[in-house]
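Protein modeling request. Please complete all fields; requests missing the sequence field cannot be processed.
Requester role: graduate student
Desired output: 3D structure, C-alpha cell encoding
Chains: 1
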Amino acid sequence: MFTLTKATDVTTGDLAEAYRFPDSDRPVVRANMVTSLDGSSAADGKSGPLGSANDNAIFHLQRALADVIVVGAQTAIDEGYRPPTVDPRFADLRLSLGLSPVPQLILVSRSLRIPADYPTLASPLVRVATCTDSPANARRALIEDGQATLLYCGEKTVDLHLLIDRIANDGGRRILCEGGPRFLAEMTSVGLLDELALTVSPALVGGDGPRIAHGVRLSPPAAMRIRHVMGDDDGFLYQLWERVAGHVVSGSD
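Delivered output (253 residues):
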C-alpha cells in the first residue's frame, strides 16, 4: 500500500527527505527517467518534451543529492549536457549534507563517438569512462583536441562493476544514472540498479520510441517495489522505486 501525495503540498524539505539517498556502506545507484503513458522515453527524440516544471525541480534536486552523475555519452550529446551545476534552490541543502559544491559527471562510451569539440569534455568535473580497446584515434583526439579525461574500466567493453568500484574508490556513494535507455538496461542487467526515480508524463506520443530500459533483455525481470508516489494538478506522477533484493518476478500462464 502507498499514499499518493499532491506535489504542491510538499515542501522543499519534504521533497529532499523523500529523495534522499539511503545511508549505505556501499555505493547506491539510482536512475532518473521519464516516460509517456504509452511507454516511450522520448518525444521527437528527446526526453525533455515529456517533462514539466515539477519534474525539472525533482531532476535538479536529485543532482544536488548525488556525488556523481553517470550517463551514456550519446544521451549526453543528444540532450545537450553541459558541465554539472547545482540549482541555487538546492545549493544550501547540498552543502548541509557535507557534499562537494558540485557533483562530478561521467560519460560512458565504448566507441568514443564523441565530437572532440564537444565543450563539456574540457571541464575538470567531467570524465569519460571507456575501455582499453576503444579506438585509439578517437582516444587521442578526445585527449588532445577535446582535453578529455579518460577513465578506463575494462578491456573489450566498459565493465560497469569496475566503473562503480572506481567511483566508490574516489569517495562516490550516491550515484545518479540519467540513462539513456540502453545504458539503463545494461546497468540493470548486471545487477547494479538499486533505485528508479520515474516521472510518468500524462501524454501519448506514439511512434517507436524506446522504453526507459531498452536493448538488453532482463531475464529474470528485475523486481522493484514502490517507495512513494506524488502527483500534481497537471497529471504528472513522480515515483520512487527500489530493488527487491533476491526476489524474482515469476511469469504467468
